[in-house]
Amino acid sequence: MSIRRILVVGLGNPGSYQGTYHSIGHLVLESFQRAQGPAQQPPFTSERLGKKAALTSLGDKYALFQSPTLMNVSGPWVAKAYREYLQNEGLSPEEVGLVLVHDDLEEDLGVVKVRQWSRSHRGHNGVKSVLASLPPSQEVNWARISVGIGRPVDRDRSTVSDFVLSKVPKHAKSVIEQKASRGLLDALRQLETKWEREMTPGP
Length: 203
Hints:
The protein contains 5 helices and 7 strands, in the order E-H-E-E-E-H-E-E-H-E-H-H.
């Protein structure tokens, strides 16, 4: 058995918090789709998924979902959307890789890192919610990809909160376009190779 599709879910916030650093999971998926082009990765459209309207891009290899819920309670929706996708496509968990894309305060802007699903959420409430709904004990081919947003000099909770909920300025969006979309593709290819190797029976 091999990986037939990879479901990539970007975390973010809806409404007035779109386009903020905390919603970089959405921004990176949009950048990735544009970089791939409509022939490989169709433009995002609104679909009913997990009982909510969500922006999705369904390509032959990658299915991109933008989580439509508030960040801190995104777990139940991600779990529903994942299971619904498996059912709709007639695929088993072993045939679908699940990747969660989220912001990371501890990395410089645009730096992409592959993380184990079971790795600590490090205070990221969106990741914490997803891990509660899809616990590592159930993991098949799951992984997280973090995208750096940098951290303000002052590290008190109020300053950090204001920063992650501030709009991403034009120069930072340019960095994301240049670094993060390519970094995401490289990370996805890395994960696919790893999963395929792990699923291949030994001699």
